[in-house]
Automatic annotation (TrEMBL), chain A:
One cellular component term from this protein's GO annotations in UniProt: plasma membrane
ABC transmembrane type-1 domain ranges (all copies): 74-263
GO biological process: transmembrane transport
UniProt protein name: Sn-glycerol-3-phosphate transport system permease protein UgpE
UniProt keyword Disulfide bond, yes or no: no
Lipid bilayer topology: Multi-pass membrane protein
Coiled-coil boundaries: none
Annotated transmembrane regions: 12-36, 73-97, 109-130, 142-163, 184-206, 244-263
Entry keywords, A to Z: Cell membrane, Membrane, Transmembrane, Transmembrane helix, Transport
Any single Pfam family the record assigns to this protein: BPD_transp_1
Natural source organism: Alsobacter metallidurans
Phylogenetic lineage: Bacteria, Pseudomonadati, Pseudomonadota, Alphaproteobacteria, Hyphomicrobiales
CDD domains according to UniProt: TM_PBP2
Chief place of localization: membrane
From TrEMBL, chain B:
SUPFAM superfamilies in the cross-refs: MetI-like (SSF161098)
Location of the protein in the cell: Cell membrane
Species lineage: Bacteria, Pseudomonadati, Pseudomonadota, Alphaproteobacteria, Hyphomicrobiales
Principal localisation: membrane
GO cellular component terms, A-Z: plasma membrane
Topology with respect to the bilayer: Multi-pass membrane protein
Homology family: Belongs to the binding-protein-dependent transport system permease family.
One GO BP annotation of this record: transmembrane transport
Keyword terms, alphabetized: Cell membrane, Membrane, Transmembrane, Transmembrane helix, Transport
Highest taxon of source: Bacteria
Protein name (record): Sugar ABC transporter permease
Length: 278, 308
């Protein structure tokens, strides 16, 4: 923190800054507040921009959830995001660990090759991925949604940097004790980098939960949509029933917000870690 | 899988005969086998294929025919491409400086605040956790004409004229950009806060003893020491704005790309060319342009980091 200037004028300036910061922060969450409040209003009240609904009702949630599609999309998104996250946590760590802690010819080339894929934007690969999914029959399947993201160079790079801070003595001691290399990775090294693992897990889950363009391309039947794609098609259908659209948007937003409220400290730290080291 | 294979080998004498160093090498390649296959098939091969498709006239149905650089020549003569190019550049050159200036101002002041620091930070950070496709609809609702839209209701309450927002060729691009800036701001704020906290307080104390003013401290100490953070955020957000899609697709779904393509970014053009017109060769050529733009941003970053 920068040193405090003393005197009443500085104190006044700080109070003004504090009030402005708070006002700006409240303005930031205004779209979220309006989304939730409208989701609790009935159709006749939507055009009344009162923040608190006069007659709060869960009818919209009942309407949106009762046709089953939203629950299905919700489950699809959750399943896809969880599987992809687990895969990234496992493989990115394994590769990061190998590149950080093993000495073998070709290590640097493998590292550079993986790193170089960071230069290729997803949008460049969607056409070849689509062709590949079409040829292998992966269009409109869960695997089709998931396969491009099962490992990432970003995660590998992040984990490699953290494994480099693990002292070799620990690993040597385990080797002397007769543990095999996979057990050393799994039981000794991995527990030492849990902050990095949670950062990677949070980042991967969030980016898959909100992913849009690839699920939009690879899925055609409504049962396979993820929540963002489903919501988008639902909103186009509803057109003017804004209270139902807001309810759908609220359902898409709620899980990440709830998790954030519980794990705020870890999430902010994880995002900073992933952002700065990755 | 590898585990079992290696155990099997281990039971024979071959494995025991290997030196520790050799065993390590075998383990390493064993660990890397599946990932190498993945990167080869899902990253490298498709990259090559994208370049290859960009030189064909493939439309998914017929066999691809080689057309050389014809797709790129067609791009140069396509007025829609130039409109899209202009839009994408506008997203970048408005979005990046505006969001960075806002984020820095917020982080700089928030850094000095102790009272309710965590709560205020959370307010700014929350939008980063939202789904762009969902929030696009909330913003779209805000932009509607009276009596539906929030913004026009507020304008009319204070006696200002109604604004067309998404329906206008001039206002629609900034209207689509606003939620993108809004959603990314929290990430930039927490990264700036981390960068500010990493600056040793002794620098500030020394400056304070020398009687240096706040403004000078900001210009001479804070900003120069934040240089790596600033470069990271400039590149990160530039890449984000170059790839903007979710917001545009959802806010202009009735008329994708807005009135007269006023909001259409490169990625939306790629999506439509490939998956509405199935003109795969032409779409692949557009992805090559996107690749080159991102490459240029990354090269600028490397250059800036080296100049330190």
């Amino acid at each position: 923190m920068s040193a405090a200037a003393v005197g009443p004028r500085a104190g006044f300036g700080r109070a003004v800054a504090w009030v402005l910061l708070l006002a700006g922060g409240l303005a930031m969450i205004l779209p979220l507040v309006f989304m939730f409040s409208t989701s609790l209003k009935d159709a006749s009240e939507v055009y009344d921009l009162r923040l608190l609904p006069a007659h709060p009702t869960l009818d919209n949630y009942v309407t949106v959830l009762s046709d089953g599609r939203f629950l299905r999309w919700f489950a699809n998104s959750m399943g896809v995001a969880v599987v992809v996250t687990l895969s990234n946590v496992f493989f990115d760590s394994l590769v990061g660990y190998t590149l950080a802690k093993f000495e073998f010819r070709g290590r640097y080339i493998v590292f550079l090759a993986i790193l170089s894929t960071l230069m290729i934007p997803t949008e460049m690969l969607v056409i070849p991925w689509y062709v590949m999914a079409r040829n292998f029959g992966w269009l409109d399947t869960y695997w089709g949604i998931m396969f491009p993201g099962m490992m990432t160079a970003f995660g590998t790079f992040l984990m490699k940097q953290f494994f480099e801070t693990v002292p070799n003595d620990f690993l040597e001691a385990a080797r002397v004790d007769g543990l095999n290399e996979f057990a050393i990775f799994w039981r000794i090294a991995l527990p030492l980098v849990t902050p990095a693992l949670s950062a990677l897990a949070i980042f991967t889950f969030l980016s898959n939960w909100t992913a849009f363009i690839w699920p939009l391309i690879v899925t055609t039947s409504k049962e396979l949509y993820t929540l963002p794609v489903g919501l988008s098609s639902f909103a186009v259908e509803q057109q003017i029933q804004w209270e139902l659209i807001m309810t759908g948007a609220a359902l898409a937003t709620l899980p990440t917000l709830l998790v954030f409220l519980v794990l705020q400290r870890y999430i902010v730290r994880g995002v900073v870690l992933a952002g700065l080291k990755g | 899988m590898t585990d079992q294979a290696l155990d099997h080998v281990a039971r024979g004498g071959f494995w025991r005969g290997l030196s520790l160093r050799r065993k390590q090498v075998v383990w390493a390649w064993g660990f890397l086998a599946v990932p190498i296959l993945f990167y080869a098939l899902i990253r490298f091969y498709p990259t090559g294929e994208a370049f290859y498709i960009s030189t064909t006239n493939w439309n998914l149905l017929t066999k691809p025919g080689f057309v050389g650089l014809a797709n790129f020549k067609r791009l140069l003569g396509d007025p829609v491409f130039w409109q899209v190019f202009r839009n994408t550049v506008l997203y970048l050159v408005i979005g990046t400086p505006v969001s960075l200036l806002l984020a820095f101002t917020i982080a700089y002041h928030l850094d000095r605040v102790r009272f309710m620091h965590g709560f205020i930070r959370a307010l700014y950070f929350l939008p980063f956790l939202t789904t762009a496709a969902a929030m696009a609809w909330v913003w779209r609702w805000f932009y509607q004409p009276v009596p539906i839209g929030l913004f026009n209701q507020v304008l009319s309450t204070f006696g200002f004229p109604q604004q067309p927002f998404l329906r206008s060729t001039t206002q629609s691009l900034p209207s689509v950009l606003a939620p993108a800036i809004w959603a990314g701001l929290g990430f930039q704020v927490v990264i700036f806060l981390a960068g500010l906290r990493a600056i040793p307080t002794t620098y500030y104390e020394a400056a304070r003893i020398d009687g240096v003013s706040d403004g000078t401290i900001l210009r001479r100490i804070t900003i120069p020491l934040l240089r790596p953070t600033i470069i990271f955020l400039v590149v990160f957000s530039s890449i984000g704005f170059l790839r903007i899609f979710d917001q545009v697709y959802n806010m202009t779904s009735g008329d994708p790309g807005g009135p007269l393509n006023a909001t259409k970014p490169l990625v939306l053009m790629i999506y439509q060319t490939a998956f509405s017109s199935f003109d795969m060769g032409y779409a692949a050529a557009q992805t090559v342009v996107l690749f080159l733009a991102l490459l240029a941003v990354s090269l600028v970053q490397l250059r800036l980091l080296r100049d330190r």
